């Protein structure tokens, strides 16, 4: 059922009092105008699957929230390990997957992390990174996303805009989650501190697949 799938693949949260950059901040229910018993969500984590041959069995994890430690938008792609281990005498827990990260904002760029053998006779690996930062490479910061969209709207360029059918599909997906939550008892709010990366249930969600959220 929809509610069963939603319960298994989503986590919702609401922040309580905490601190950000060493400064105490109130919880959501302590904000002016917010009812003290509000169950409005300020965080969501979800696991999605795309039902086609190309992405069959590949999980897509998403998390978004307010009052997290920092403002950061990124897409991280974790590659599967190769079936043939090149460094066969290295402990499997030392081998980290290659990760390609698209940094959307605030520091636009691309980075890739991969394993490299340390110099010497011993088989020792260490994660290394190659980084491209838009501002550092070109000496200027890209224009704000909304500035670009407003400019494109004025000249009639729809390349960067979402199509109508895409928007409708996204709303269908969001609506199915909201409808599923209506039949699931809400968690005890607040369930994560302001300044943290969200509720522990989000770590459990991705942990059930033997994975973890990327450290930002």
- For the largest sheet, list the strands in their spatial order: 7-8-9-10
Structural class of the secondary elements? Answer: alpha+beta
> What is the count of helical runs?
5
Terminal-residue CA separation: 35 Å
Taking the sheet with the most strands, its summary is:
4 strands, antiparallel
State the order of secondary-structure elements, H for helix, E for strand: HEEEEEEEEEEHHHEH
Q: Could you tell me the strand content as a percent range?
A: 25-35%
- Number-wise, the strands total 11
Average of per-residue pLDDT values? 89
Describe the model.
Helix content is 24%, strand content 27%. It is of the alpha+beta class and 216 residues long. A hairpin with a 3-residue loop joins β8 (99-105) and β9 (109-117). α1 (2-9) crosses α4 (164-182). It is globular, with a radius of gyration of 21 Å.
